[in-house]
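Example S7 (structure tokens).
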């Protein structure tokens, strides 16, 4: 199909709302707010670790009008990308994402660090949204060793995909931080579970403890996973301009309802540093037990210094 025809189809269908299938206990959405002050956001959502959709956090971003499918094809269409071991051009990924559907979902171009792969586009997602600050991962304390010590936390990651494609697994984000998802184009539905539901979501063993063993959440075999019946599922649909805040420890996955461009970022500060420390300590104990003690001493010291000077 020609790109212009695919674009026309996307524009015609982009305002069609769909909803996720019901689970054992499903609550269709949480708060959606606009014009919220940072103080109110911090008090009512961050400190209470309650998810929310911020409807106006990225209205000021040039990306909201600039990052169209045509933009990516014109400027980066010839760029080679590898997804699931297969070579594509970015133009082909955009085309496949525009015509994607439940039966033949497009490959998912995901977790692409903007600063590393598209540094010239950082100006399109500036200034940094107030709701996402402060972010200790951007501190000078961590910048020289961010990739190795905190798993790259604090990077904006790009996601481009199409209708019918889902994130491949239920999880909560490393390194145990808050997560913000900014929806640039298209629509996406998120399925969330609170941290207290972790035993009912059958976490993997070892260093993959933040990933669930459950696959298709709409077809769980309760004879194999009986505790899932106790889980409470929240469904949140986001559209262009929405920012979904997911506090640390909230399990989630997502499915695209149309062609979609999103950005995600992990945020750490005094509101969740205890959770980040807990996560990273547990991860270090599996991956490098010899250095785990020294590693955790550094992380605690860094957090203590940041609490004093931020």
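Recovered sequence:
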């Amino acid at each position: 199909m020609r790109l212009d025809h695919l674009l026309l189809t996307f524009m015609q269908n982009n305002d069609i709302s769909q909803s996720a299938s019901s689970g054992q206990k499903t609550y269709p959405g949480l708060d959606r707010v606009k014009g919220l002050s940072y103080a109110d956001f911090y008090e009512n959502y961050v400190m209470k670790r309650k998810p929310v959709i911020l409807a106006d956090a990225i209205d000021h971003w040039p990306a909201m009008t600039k990052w169209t499918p045509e933009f990516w094809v014109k400027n980066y269409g010839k760029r080679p990308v590898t997804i699931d071991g297969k070579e594509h051009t970015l133009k082909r990924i955009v085309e496949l994402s525009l015509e994607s559907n439940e039966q033949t979902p497009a490959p998912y171009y995901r977790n692409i660090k903007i600063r590393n792969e598209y540094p010239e586009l950082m100006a399109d997602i500036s200034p940094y949204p107030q709701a996402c600050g402060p972010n200790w991962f951007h501190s000078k304390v961590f910048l020289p060793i961010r990739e190795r010590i905190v798993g790259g936390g604090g990077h904006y990651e790009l996601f481009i995909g199409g209708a019918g494609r889902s994130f491949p697994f239920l999880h909560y984000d490393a390194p145990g931080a808050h997560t913000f998802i900014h929806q640039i184009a298209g629509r996406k539905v998120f399925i969330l579970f609170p941290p207290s539901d972790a035993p009912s979501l059958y976490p993997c063993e070892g260093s993959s403890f933040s990933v669930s063993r459950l696959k298709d959440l709409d077809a769980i075999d309760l004879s194999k996973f009986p505790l899932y019946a106790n889980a409470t599922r929240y469904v949140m649909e986001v559209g262009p301009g929405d920012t979904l805040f997911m506090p640390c420890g909230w399990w989630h996955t997502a499915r695209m309802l149309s062609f979609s461009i999103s950005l995600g970022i992990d945020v750490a500060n005094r509101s969740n540093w205890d959770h980040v420390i807990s996560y990273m300590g547990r991860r270090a104990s599996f991956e490098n037990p010899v250095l785990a003690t020294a590693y955790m001493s550094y992380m605690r010291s860094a957090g203590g210094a940041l609490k004093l000077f931020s």
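Notes on this example. The longest strand covers residues 178-185.
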